[in-house]
Amino acid sequence: MTESIYVGVDVGGTSIKLGLVNGEGNLLGTFEGPTGTEAGSEVVLQNITEYVRKLVDQSDYDWGQVAGCGLGFPGFMDMSSGIVRFAPNLRWTNVPVREPLEHILQKPVRINNDANVAALGEAWAGAGKGIDDLVLLTLGTGVGGGIIAAGKIHEGYNGMAGELGHIQIVPDLEAIRCGCGQKGCLETVSSATGIVRMAQDALERGEKTALGMEPEVSAKAVLDAARAGDEVAIRIVTRAGYYLGRTMSMLAVILNPQRFIVGGGVSQAGDILFGPIREAFAKYTPPAIQEGIDIVPAVLGNQAGVVGAAGLLLRS
User: What topology is assigned to 5-122+303-315 in CATH?
Assistant: First the structure.
């Protein structure tokens, strides 16, 4: 029997990443090209179809083996109709995706939110392999989230489940306004952006820290300084980890996942971040609920999106 293969597409505002994946979640080939956001949605969809063809043509497989194409988008969408409702990074509103791509490619097409497909990728072939119930939190510009329940993406009634960065976890007296319009969201303290903001606030207060020697403060600089023993940086990273752990405690009571996975660049911080996460989680989660739950870093990195997008054809 000829092996079926699946194309996963991770659409970003700047670039489109693609992967060719087999039925076990193994990555067989990759391709990357510019998104072309400035030219509009029609050009972006044309680029996607062109890149899909190039990916398959450059592989050891033929077009007849392609069983379908899955796509992850940074925004809100109607998965059932295949329409991207709102994707600010792409400047899209109500753009049909599934129907035009199926017409051109003559293959089944599935779409979902990029954080959801990253969670599916980690569940299928990454840090959550073999686990049917898990939660992924991605720490980048914001805090993204994806929930896998019984082996499938949990989307909620209108596809908005998993917006974990907008859980209001910071007390009012410490809270600042989030980009979503609310105050005290998790991503105001635990994202890369939040970590940089806290560092800049410390510098403006005149606190003594090695971060003042940096030409430009970045999340990586804060994490490096914390590992080197800088007290201000340690306090900032500890605060980010504390609120992540408290958020996981809330999610554990509601969802009871077997594993929490932390992805994104900040997740590479190691024990300086994971220590406070696990400490807060243990403190605030009832013992009977936290038993058997672990908290681990993601392993697929930038590949999680393309692997998970391909998995939409098999696991959603």
Answer: Nucleotidyltransferase; domain 5 (3.30.420)
What pLDDT, in 10s, does the model give residues 184-239? Answer: 999 999 999 999 999 999 999 999 999 998 888 999 999 999 999 999 999 999 99
Q: How confident is the model at residue 302 (pLDDT cuts 50, 70, 90)?
A: confident
| pTM check: above 0.85 | yes
* CATH number of this structure's domain 131-298: 3.30.420.40
Give the span between the Cα atoms of 51 and 258, in whole angstroms.
Answer: 37
Beta-carbon neighbour count of residue 93 at 10 Å?
13
Range(s) of the chain covered by CATH 3.30.420.40: 5-122+303-315, 131-298
User: What DSSP letter does each residue of 193-243 carry, written as one string?
Assistant: HHHHHHHHHHHHTT---GGGG-SS--HHHHHHHHHTT-HHHHHHHHHHHHH
Question: From the CB of residue 251, how many other CB atoms can be counted at a distance below 10 Å?
Answer: 20
5-11 and 76-78 as β-strands: parallel, antiparallel, unpaired? Answer: unpaired
